Amino acid sequence: MWFCHDLLPFRTGESKYFQKFIAALKPDYVILSRTKLSQCLIPELANEIQEKLVTILEQRDVADVVLTTDAWTSKSCDNYEALTAHFICKNFMFRSATLGIAKLDNQTADGHVKLIEKLVNKHKGLMERLVWLCPSYN
Question: Tell me: the pLDDT tens digits for 113-137?
Fold first, then answer.
């Protein structure tokens, strides 16, 4: 979870200094490999968080939702877009959650709209509560 919450790269676990630090805390602990993190642990955590997000967004105590998007091109020239929801819960806590990241095959306005609709429609009742969309393109 630490890698996800602090947005750390997976290579952190491969650092000899990180490994020495962990060994000083608990010598018999086996640090997970980059592969184990990326192919097992992260998808499990993502599914768990997605289920919680669906529950939160389907509750009627979240009245209004604002979306932001971010689009970018990878080093291999693939285009991606992320969609993030921002809302205030009934306990007045401000929350942000990424609704999804997807490959953007069509870089036209229509392509962006279709991708955003696809990601929003995964969440029942979300479309009716949207109040604003702020795109950001790097």
Answer: 898 888 888 877 777 777 766 666 5
How many degrees, rounded to 5, is the angle at CA 42 between CA 37 and CA 45? Answer: 140
Same domain? For 43 and 82 the reply is: no
| Structure tokens given for 80 | 């991606």
Domain that includes residue 23, residue range: 2-53
What CA–CA distance (Å, rounded) separates 69 from 100? 10
**Structural domain count of the chain:** 2
Residues 108 and 48 in one domain: no
33-51: pLDDT as tens digits: 888 888 888 888 878 887 8
What DSSP element (H or E) covers 110?
Answer: helix 109-120
Each residue's pLDDT tens digit, 7-33: 778 888 888 999 999 999 999 998 888
Do 74 and 25 belong together in one domain? no
